[in-house]
């Protein structure tokens, strides 16, 4: 069996990391993955290194004002994709982004095509019913994401939307990596994620400033970088928030290709996101058996469940975040116990095998 995976972007964000895991997993199960990407870049380079067959089909923004140009781009993409599907003799289509889902919705609706749409964001969009009705299965990666989809659907279409949690491999035995100059004798706290205001880097930095000013002995690391122009502007704004006196204790590490290995060397991972759809960083940290705390919005409470209620702080509240970090520091043994229980929960609900089992059924 061959499966076409359709992705709009070639930068490696959370959606692309999840797609990479799926591609590697299905390949190990005897399915041949074929990638169609809207641009050249890091994802294509990865395909080359992993011997994954790929095609580049441009998927320009569908929000541009020129209607005829949008229609032309849509037509050209669909003609080329149908040609590729005939050439590769496969009828299975799996979209990974909102833009690719829109570009493929007509092909997805064809009776001989087996189509899966992966929705990774909390969406409140027009024409949701049209999109959902076009695909055989629409996968929502969390209940928070599913709820945002079904509330905008026509009657009976909610049966087309299935909850299948995002997943990662077991990183509990991964070899730890350390940041250059990392001091093992101090409390090491970090957040991971691409720079974006809803990811909450500014909140994390404000929290670090607050705690360090009060004499809390720790080092705060920011993993991740900016890709697009607006993200570069936000990154610059965030890094300017670091107090000069705290420069050595609030460190921007940048992008790392194996974040879970760095997580293994840290004492605490924090996710301060606003309305996080799922939080891949959460299951990576839990899988790495590192203590994890998060804001109480979006899909994060869903991941932690009742076991991890004590790991939540109020969304957008810097004081509550700092109090929770201090609480972890002063009750390390208790939170290590919670971390161990969360790891068992991960094995049951968020292990990569669980996701791959469901996908193989959908493809069939």
General description of the model:
The structure is a single chain. The chain has 364 residues and is α/β, with parallel strands linked by helices. The chain has 2 domains: 2-164, Glycogen Phosphorylase B (Rossmann fold, 3-Layer(aba) Sandwich), CATH 3.40.50.2000; 187-349, Rossmann fold (3-Layer(aba) Sandwich), CATH 3.40.50. It contains 15 helices and 13 strands. The protein has helices at 14-28, 42-49, 67-88, 98-103, 105-108, 128-134, 143-150, 201-213, 229-239, 259-263, 280-287, 300-304, 318-330, 332-349, 352-363, and strands at residues 2-7, 32-37, 53-56, 92-95, 114-119, 137-140, 161-163, 187-192, 218-223, 250-254, 268-271, 291-295, 312-313. It has a 7-stranded parallel beta sheet. Strands 10-9-8-11-12-13 form a 6-stranded parallel beta sheet, sandwiched between helices. α1 (14-28) packs across α15 (352-363) and α8 packs across α13 (318-330). It is globular, with a radius of gyration of 21 Å. The N and C termini lie close together (9 Å). 44% of the residues are buried. The mean pLDDT is 95.
